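Self-study notes.
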Amino acid sequence: MAQAQAPVEDLRSREQSIQRSQQKTGAAYRELQQAQYETKLAEQDYLNAQEAQRAAQKHADEMKRQLDAASKALAAAKAREARTRKAYDEALGGVDKAFQKPPAK
């Protein structure tokens, strides 16, 4: 009778071992699926951030071009102001000299 029970216990032990292995496999598969899902989300986040960075760089490049153009326009305006101030000062000096001359008799 002891011999008849041993195969049944071995069979039960084997079935339990198979069941535990299947449970572990199922849990590992669910973890794999979750990891794959998280990888896809992370990849999409990366691609979105990369695209945002490209757009920001493009915008920054455009802003730099506008800054350079404004800087050139400012330099030109300052140079023109300096020229016109000089011309005004010369003209004002001419008026001052005219007032300083004695009247013609």
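Second protein, same conventions, sequence then structure:
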Amino acid sequence: MLLWAVILLACAGVGAVLASRTNPFPPGVPDPGASQPTDSPSPSPPALVDWSIAMTSRTTHTYRVGGSCTSDWSLEGRLRVTDAGRISGRGVARLQPGAQCDFPSAQIQARRIVVLFRGQRGGDALDLRFEGGSVTPAGSQDLGAFVKTLGTLRVSIPEQAGAKVNEPTRIEEPDGDLYRSVTTIRLRG
């Protein structure tokens, strides 16, 4: 009897070891207690939206000692809006014919200015800020105050092709200098 008990225990042990190493549900037989693995989507890169931007700006710098300088600028550039709504980009503003001062000046008028775009998407609009960058020719001056008024512009433009805004700017310095501009901005797809 003792022999039979040992044989039965040995068989039970071998059966337990074999059962632990085999799949009771071979391929094609569903396991009622298991859940199906779900494919987790791999993170996708942020979606980017590119816009062409066109800008014209008519500027005037009236000096406290008398006299003024005027200039017209035309800019073409690109801006990018990330999925998170951040805006960045750049463009090049070019001086248009007719820039002048109503007094003699030894300073050289800037002909080309790099403009940086920054901002944030706000609902269905792009809230833009601008910053002047490098100036060509080197050492030249922006006599008509394009960069001065550009730095104070805060524009909200609908995010759609063909959207347009006109933005007047006036800055009066405590020393008496006056800076004015009228800037038109257009979005293109």
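Instructor comment on the second fold: Residues 92 and 160 are 22 Å apart (CA to CA).
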